[in-house]
């Protein structure tokens, strides 16, 4: 068996997943990117710059916070929150964007493009593009633009052009198609900052590496606090970058259990969900082979989730591999379970989590009560919920006497 | 298919036959692209069956996919129209089989994305495609790095795997792109998606001539060719001219199935006339 930490192989494969399923026009660029990234990875100057921006610009390290009230509330495991929502721009997304924009500068690219679902990756990309003085175009599904207005405004304030995508069904997958079309048309001067651990090689490995700072810090912080490694790690999964960032540095620690939480929407059996591993089959989309939501004829089916950031019909290929290996347990949480956990976190800890993150908290609500207090559970608090006020008000507004936010 | 034809096929493919014959006539092939099942199964079948008579030499038939990321708006919409009207991989292969009952000479190349083939099952797909009378495959998202997925198995079924070369394919990479290529080479005239801006003929001619130094295979040029004039210009130095989005647009603008057939075949006739006279 392959050692988890040595993957992907030279062809970008995690077992049979991953790869480089892209048009020939993009291949030379993708191979160049692979070389540039391999060089940067071992270049002390690149690593020094990355560390500098992660520290003074992003605000790392993010705290590992003992959620005392939440732990008491569930009456079981000791729950720690990895506070990625305290990063600049309010989510883990910027960890990756800083890395990629440094690479774009090094490669002499003059223009940045990205896709976004909930808008957090779009905001993080617009932010680094502004910081490095590069023009930036963000593709966002027209449906998502409707439900994430505050983030659209943030991107525009940061100087990005936000292009509504109406093709297909106007969600994250269509935004990614449109970004790929832009890239293939402007291949000479454009750098595509993919926001998750998916896409053609080297993106899944590169994004993972940039996000792995989450897991490396967690290791050190837990060792300092408790003198040992955590017993379990929990994270939500759309494409899977926050989960991979937390999990990856622990993959070889057999005693550390890992749980990825997919968006169960109205329920995995309802057909209205975004749980690619729990309700999908292997296929090829957006440059990689992975689990996809699709019909038997290989046509991609729309994902459904209350959270726009998880609303993607695929998942990073490394997750697909870890799923088949049984190294990580993949479960799902429904819209309703996420909304419930969202409110508990607000009330018990004074932290408003992103709706994406609330899916991880929903799994904590199921699991923590069954465990002893010696069990150290780390939850990736991947983003803050300010962007979700309108969605939440739509679902819970009546309860609080709020009609519109 | 009769025994004689079958025997014939094992020695020389329809694509080889076609290019050899056209070379003798000193003209390029006219290659048309339509999406299978667009706008609906019945109209699509009529469009397909009458293409050779209207002047098409090689038929590219698109296998619709929900997420065609190398295609511009025209072909994206065509795929959605076809899928909304119930087109499937099995129906596309059945269209080819029915076409072959009446026409055993015009080559048919299926074009699309890997996922619908992967989900159908590669071996099953190749078996059914060969049986239906498919001559070649163009699969946009399978670069030579993934030849073991479909390109090599296709060869074992006697189906050509037509490779795309693009403006970004440099001299260093070209041998890899050409290594397992067969049928013809499809030169993508501009970096971009289908239906985009037109290429400049001078740059194109240089690119085609450079390609010729590396391969004996015929070279087709496509992406951005919409008019009879463009087809004639490019047909002077290429072995085939591919027109897709302009034909698909005819379907989008048609008021009925009959109107779609009239419009598509009208444009095909103009293009056919133009490529027939372009080297004189």
From TrEMBL, chain A:
Which keywords fit this entry according to its UniProt record? Amino-acid biosynthesis, Aromatic amino acid biosynthesis, Lyase, Pyridoxal phosphate, Tryptophan biosynthesis
Pathway where it operates: Amino-acid biosynthesis; L-tryptophan biosynthesis; L-tryptophan from chorismate: step 5/5
Q: Please verify whether the record's keywords include Nucleotide-binding.
A: no
Entry cofactors: pyridoxal 5'-phosphate
List of residues that carry N6-(pyridoxal phosphate)lysine:
93
Which residue range or ranges hold the Tryptophan synthase beta chain-like PALP domain?
A: 59-383
The GO terms describing molecular function are: tryptophan synthase activity
Catalytic activity annotation: (1S,2R)-1-C-(indol-3-yl)glycerol 3-phosphate + L-serine = D-glyceraldehyde 3-phosphate + L-tryptophan + H2O
Q: Which domain of life is it from?
A: Bacteria
EC number(s) of the enzyme?
Answer: 4.2.1.20
Q: Where are the transmembrane segments?
A: none
- Indicate yes or no for the key word Disulfide bond: no
One Pfam family hit: PALP
GO cellular component terms listed in the entry, alphabetical order? cytoplasm
Gene3D superfamilies found in the cross-reference section: 3.40.50.1100
**UniProt cross-references to NCBIfam families, sorted A to Z:** trpB
Per the similarity annotation, which family is this?
A: Belongs to the TrpB family.
What is this protein's function?
Answer: The beta subunit is responsible for the synthesis of L-tryptophan from indole and L-serine.
Subunit-structure text: Tetramer of two alpha and two beta chains.
Its recorded name reads Tryptophan synthase beta chain
TrEMBL record, chain B:
Give the record's pathway: Amino-acid biosynthesis; L-tryptophan biosynthesis; L-tryptophan from chorismate: step 5/5
Q: Which SUPFAM superfamilies match?
A: Ribulose-phoshate binding barrel
**Catalyzed chemical reaction(s):** (1S,2R)-1-C-(indol-3-yl)glycerol 3-phosphate + L-serine = D-glyceraldehyde 3-phosphate + L-tryptophan + H2O
Q: Does the keyword DNA-binding apply?
A: no
A molecular function annotated in GO for this UniProt entry is:
tryptophan synthase activity
Spell out the NCBIfam families in the cross-references: trpA
| HAMAP family named in the record | Trp_synth_alpha
Q: Which family does it belong to?
A: Belongs to the TrpA family.
Q: What is this protein called?
A: Tryptophan synthase alpha chain
Originating organism: Vreelandella aquamarina
């Amino acid at each position: 068996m392959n050692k988890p930490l040595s993957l992907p192989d030279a062809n970008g494969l995690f077992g049979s997943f991953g790869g480089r399923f892209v048009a020939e026009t993009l291949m030379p660029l993708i191979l160049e990117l692979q070389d540039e990234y391999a060089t940067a990875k071992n270049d002390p100057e690149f690593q020094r710059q990355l560390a500098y921006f992660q520290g003074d610009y992003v605000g790392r390290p993010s705290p590992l916070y003992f959620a005392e009230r939440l732990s008491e509330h569930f009456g079981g495991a000791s729950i720690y929150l990895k506070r990625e929502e305290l990063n600049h721009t309010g989510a883990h997304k910027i960890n990756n964007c800083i890395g990629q924009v440094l690479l774009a500068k090094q490669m002499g690219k003059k223009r940045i493009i990205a896709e976004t679902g909930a808008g957090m990756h779009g905001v993080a990309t617009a932010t680094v593009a502004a910081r490095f003085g590069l023009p930036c175009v963000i593709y966002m599904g027209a449906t998502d633009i409707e439900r994430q207005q505050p983030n659209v405004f943030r991107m525009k304030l940061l100087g990005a052009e936000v292009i509504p995508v109406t093709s297909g069904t106007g969600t994250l997958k269509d935004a990614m198609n449109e970004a790929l079309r832009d890239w293939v048309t402007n291949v000479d001067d454009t750098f595509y900052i993919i926001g998750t651990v998916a896409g053609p090689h080297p993106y899944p490995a590169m994004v993972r590496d940039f996000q792995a700072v989450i897991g490396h810090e967690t290791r050190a912080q837990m060792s300092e606090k408790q003198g040992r490694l955590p017993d379990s790690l929990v994270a939500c999964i759309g494409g899977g970058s926050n989960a991979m960032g937390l999990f990856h540095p622990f993959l070889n620690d057999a005693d550390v259990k890992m749980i990825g939480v997919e968006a169960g929407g109205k329920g995995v059996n309802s057909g209205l969900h975004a749980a690619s591993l729990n309700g999908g089959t292997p296929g090829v989309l957006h440059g990689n082979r992975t689990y996809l939501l699709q019909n038997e004829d290989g046509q991609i089916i729309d994902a459904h989730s209350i959270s726009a950031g998880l609303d993607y019909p695929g998942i990073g290929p490394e997750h697909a591999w870890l799923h088949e290996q049984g190294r990580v347990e993949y479960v799902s949480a429904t819209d309703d379970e996420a909304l419930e956990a969202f409110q508990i976190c607000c009330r018990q800890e004074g932290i408003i989590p992103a709706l994406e993150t609330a899916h991880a908290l929903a799994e904590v609500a199921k699991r923590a009560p069954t465990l002893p207090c010696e069990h150290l559970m780390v939850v990736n608090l991947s983003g803050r919920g300010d962007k979700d006020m309108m969605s939440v008000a739509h679902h819970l507004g009546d309860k609080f006497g709020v009609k519109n936010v | 298919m009769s025994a004689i034809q079958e025997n014939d096929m094992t020695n020389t493919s329809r694509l080889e036959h076609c290019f050899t014959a056209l070379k003798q006539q000193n003209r390029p092939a006219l290659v048309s692209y339509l999406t299978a099942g667009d706008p609906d199964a019945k109209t699509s079948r009529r469009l397909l069956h009458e293409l050779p008579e209207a002047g098409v030499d090689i038929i590219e038939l698109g296998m619709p996919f929900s997420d065609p990321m190398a295609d511009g708006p025209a072909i994206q919409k065509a795929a959605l129209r076809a899928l909304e009207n119930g087109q499937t991989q099995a129906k596309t292969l059945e269209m080819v089989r029915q076409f072959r009952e009446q026409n055993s000479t015009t080559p048919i190349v299926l074009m699309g994305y890997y996922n619908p083939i992967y989900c159908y099952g590669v071996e099953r797909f190749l078996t059914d495609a060969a049986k239906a009378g498919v001559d070649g495959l163009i699969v946009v998202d399978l670069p030579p790095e993934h030849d073991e997925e479909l390109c090599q198995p296709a060869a074992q079924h006697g189906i050509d795997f037509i490779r795309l070369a693009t403006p970004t394919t440099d001299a260093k990479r070209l041998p890899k792109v050409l290594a397992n290529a067969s049928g013809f080479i499809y030169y993508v005239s501009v970096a971009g998606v289908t239906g985009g801006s037109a290429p400049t003929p001078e740059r194109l001619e240089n690119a085609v001539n450079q390609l010729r130094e590396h391969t004996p295979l015929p070279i087709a040029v496509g992406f951005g060719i919409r008019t009879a004039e463009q087809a004639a210009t490019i047909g002077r130095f290429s072995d085939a001219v591919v027109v897709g989005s302009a034909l698909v647009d005819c379907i989008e603008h048609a008021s009925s199935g009959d109107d779609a057939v009239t419009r598509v075949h009208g444009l095909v006739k103009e293009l056919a006339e133009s490529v027939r006279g372009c080297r004189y």
